[in-house]
Amino acid sequence: MNNDINVKALQRNCFRQSKVPGEFMLQMRVPGGVIPAKYLEVATHIAETWGDGNFHIGTRQTLDFPGIKYESIPAVNAYIQEYIEGVETELSGVDMNQIAHEPHEWDPKSGYPTIGARNVTACIGNVHCICGNINTQEMARKVEQLIFPSNYHIKVNVAGCPNDCIKANMCDFGIIGVAKIDFHPDRCIGCGACVRQCKAASTRVLMSGPNGLPIKDDCCCVGCGECVRVCPASAWTRNPKKFYRVILGGRTGRQTPRAGKMFLNWATEEVVLGVLKNWQKFSAWALDYKPVYLHGGHLIDRAGYHKFKEIILEGVELNPECQVAEQMFWAETEWRSNFNVKFPEDHLTAGPGSNNGGH
Amino acid sequence: MGYRLNKEQSNALFAKLSEKYDIYAPKRFPKQGRYSDTDVIKYDKVTSFDEVEYTEKSTYPMKEVLNPVHQTLFYFNDEDYHEAVKNLRPMLIIGRACDINAQKIQERIFLGNGFHEDAYYRRRHDMAKFVLMECNGGTDTCFCVSMNANKTDDYVFGLKFSENGLEIESKDAEFEPYFSEYEKEDFKVKFVEDNQLTVTPPVIPDKEVLNALKKHPMWKEYDARCISCGACTMACSTCTCFTTRDVVYTENADNGERRRVSASCQVAGFDQMAGQREMRPTAGDRMRYKVLHKFHAYDARFHEGPMCVGCGRCTDHCPQFIALSATVNKMSKAVEEIMKEQGKEC
Q1: Count of other CB atoms within 10 angstroms of residue B247
Q2: Does A149 sit behind a cis peptide bond, omega within 30 degrees of 0 on the bond before it?
């Protein structure tokens, strides 16, 4: 086996290095986690012709094919042209002849041009889910147009509602569909279903007022829409205008995993997409135009939140309802110090005979 | 005698009628549904043909026009009170045969139950005339034919809606002048003759069978399935239950108004008495009460058939997919079983 293989170039081409020398795993993008079922035949063909016969459902909703031999890669790339054009160009409206918004001709037989902007994941959203507030697939595809192809890394997850099954709280840029809720007092029968549901399943912003009518603490409403879902009389309805919450800087990882923090609340689609449009510019500035395999959240750490905010909001006209985080109070799990997990005899204690750690 | 109107003429007719009448019809409220990007269709005032939603069954029933979810009865202060009497304009309410038949049941409860007429209902009722809308055949939850509610004679004129406009069956001479300028056509509203669904309410011959039915295990199913939300009764064309509420004005607690507000026998606490005792503490108990009331007790009291017109809105609106039609048919089977056990002939 001739092992002279440029694995970094293959990684950019969406072929992941295997522990088996000369074997790779292809990762095919599925923006928004949904593709027409006909593409499963494409997947079957790839796995059975060039892969090891299996396919792996990628952790970011990609279709992954392990066991692809290095020698097969040109044939695989030529074959997936149909898939890339079908899913990226036709379904998602992506311009493949650019990288990070700069013109760059794509050879359709060469496979994926970049791995940088990672697959945009989404829950099934309101096309199916009884809780979802937004069409997550449409949103994911609009995001795909803005962030792919690019060599700058960003993970975007699109959640239909604050229940966040897709974990928008754990990625660089999490988008959560939220609803402004309208109350129609002339339809409320005072049954209390909304108050109970908000307490049991959401943020307890509804209280039972006189006659059992709900009183709402607007400040802490997360816009989940559970009150609408359980109301028997349509006394609560979702405002038809769509709103989004953006969660910033969440991540997993060995060193500093953390849940993201709220960056924007009650932003319109226009604002969310306007902000994402600036992502390439921010990444380019932070990395001085030299892309490395480093996710966006880390770039915010390096640049500092205020610098990030300055670049990312440039030219974005915020809708009147939109709120922006003034500061970021990150709360990271500091694996490197493990300051909190120690042998019981080292625990600091209170009271008689307490261990005060030598102070 | 009938007429045919194009869209423009239909809008002109609605405008003309609106000069004298408040027209109520099913109207679509986009994106106000229970689930995201779903709509609600409810009765509302319309002034044009274009506003009427005629292709789909309304989510909420026609009863809301004459028996609103909230209705102020009187205003009070610490010394005095006065009745809330609205200067109502004459109303035209557009509905299908089942909807109009449902109002007969509403009338029976509000105006013909015992010795006392409900003045608030009477006031609205006397101002209203029904306009029949030809039904496009309904949906798979409809069973108006089984309930004998597919036909009516109580309408002042009939309409068939289509994307091209209206076809009109002129009936009451009073309205003839509104149509006479338009193209004449032989037209009569057709009634639905068949539903996909057939519902056969049981005949409960005596107390012994009734008592056995009340204890039948079939009701247990609903303890696990029904969430007691009351959506079925809000969507019901015939349910009339209400409670009274005093709304006290926050800036001056001596002032306020008394309203009646729709209530649901399915919501826990509906039958709670002094001492906190509830007569029907489980979802199954409440379901049994509702179904027996509609398909046995009402007829036993008035001898006018079931308190149901088979519009199917309760089934459509149930978030747990409990079908009233299936429940009634299960009940009929249970009655058969019971009668066999008791050695009685069906």
Answers
A1: 18
A2: yes
Residue of B nearest to A186 (CA): B70
Q: Which residues of A touch B233 (CB under 8 A)?
A: 232
The whole-number average pLDDT for the span B282-300 is: 97
Q: How many CB atoms lie within 10 A of CB A194?
A: 26
C-alpha atoms less than 13 angstroms from C-alpha of A292 in its C-beta half-sphere: 7
CA dist., res. A268 & res. A241, Å (int) = 8
Going by the DSSP 8-state scheme, the letter that residue B49 receives in this structure is: G
The verdict on A91 and A199 lying in the same domain is no
For residue A219, the model assigns a pLDDT of: 86
What CATH number is associated with residue A2? 3.30.70.2500
Name the nearest CA neighbour of A244 among A314, A322, A315, A182.
A322
- Pick from B30, B70, B230: CB nearest A232: B230
- Percent of all residues in chain A with a pLDDT value above 90, rounded to a whole number: 81
Q: Cα(B228)–Cα(B308) distance, rounded to whole angstroms? A: 20
Within a domain: A212: yes
- Structural domain total, chain A: 2
DSSP A313-357: TTT----TT-EE-SS-------TTT-TT---GGG----STT---T
Distance CA A24, CA B61 (A): 62
For B234, which residue in chain A has the nearest alpha carbon?
A233
Largest CA-CA distance found in chain A, in angstroms, rounded: 80
Q: Is the pLDDT of residue A351 over 80?
A: no
Q: What is the mean pLDDT of chain A?
A: 93
SS3 of B317-340: HCCCCCCHHHHHHHHHHHHHHHHH
Q: Is the pLDDT of residue A356 over 70?
A: no
Q: Give the model's pLDDT for residue B83.
A: 92
Mean pLDDT of B246-265: 92
Does some domain include residue A105? yes
Q: Which residue of A has its CA nearest to B267?
A: A191
Same domain? A111 vs A189: no
The region of weakest confidence among A83-97, A126-140, A211-225, B194-208 is: A211-225
Assess if residue A341 is contained within a domain.
no
For residue B69, give the 3-state DSSP assignment: coil
* pLDDT higher than threshold 90 for residue A359: no
Whether A314 maps to a domain, the answer reads no
Whether B264 and A126 lie within 8 Å, measured CB to CB: no
CA A230/CA B35 separation, integer angstroms: 10
Which residue of B36, B68, B247 is in closest CB contact with A134?
B36
- Could you report the predicted ipTM of this complex, rounded to two decimals? 0.93
Tokens of A140: 């994911």
Of residues B116 and B162, more confidence is placed in B162
B240 pLDDT band, cuts 50/70/90, is very high
C-alpha to C-alpha distance for B105 and B263, rounded to whole angstroms: 17
Kind of pairing between the strands at B157-162 and B128-133: parallel
Q: At A298, which helix (H) or strand (E)?
A: helix A296-303
Q: Which domain holds residue A199?
A: 185-234
Global pTM value: 0.92
- Alpha-carbon distance B44 to B23, whole Å? 8
In B122-218, DSSP assigns E strands to 128-133, 157-162, 165-170, 183-185
Where is average pLDDT lowest: A120-134, A277-291, B285-299? A277-291
Q: Output the pLDDT for position B1.
A: 79
> What is the model's pLDDT at position A1?
55
Contact list in B for residue A176 (CB cut-off 8 A) is none
* Mean pLDDT confidence for B194-223: 96
Would you place residue A296 in the very low, low, confident or very high pLDDT band (cuts 50, 70, 90)? Answer: confident
Report angle CA B315, B321, B326 to the nearest 5 degrees: 65
